[in-house]
Amino acid sequence: VQKGYNDAFIPIVQVLPGVAYKGKSTHLLSRLNLSDMLPENPASFYRYIGSLTTPPCDEGVIWSILRKTAHIGRHQVCIAMTLLLFQNNQNEPESE
């Protein structure tokens, strides 16, 4: 996490509030370039066979871990974390 923003993540972060509830969908407002989200030298990585990290924890997953990390802005992380607040309440609020 760093100060400021990582421009590569802006197209995702700007639409996150629109998908806070289960069943919601949205469209990106600008073009997303996945290669811009990768760190320098993404060809350097570790790979292993494992399983999913959440139930049913199915096996046969190939994990690829990049040696270098990509950075994202602190504020961008905070926006993404707000979605976790809705994890236990997946119902959209009732309108008044």
Automatic annotation (TrEMBL):
PROSITE patterns: ALPHA_CA_2
GO molecular function, one term: carbonate dehydratase activity
Keywords: Lyase, Metal-binding, Zinc
Domain called Alpha-carbonic anhydrase: residue spans: 1-96
Entry keyword annotation includes Transmembrane helix: no
Known catalytic reactions: hydrogencarbonate + H(+) = CO2 + H2O
Enzyme Commission no: 4.2.1.1
InterPro entries named in the record: CA_dom, CA_dom_sf, Carbonic_anhydrase_a-class
Family to which the UniProt record says this protein belongs: Belongs to the alpha-carbonic anhydrase family.
Official protein name in the record: carbonic anhydrase
Organism: Araneus ventricosus (Orbweaver spider)
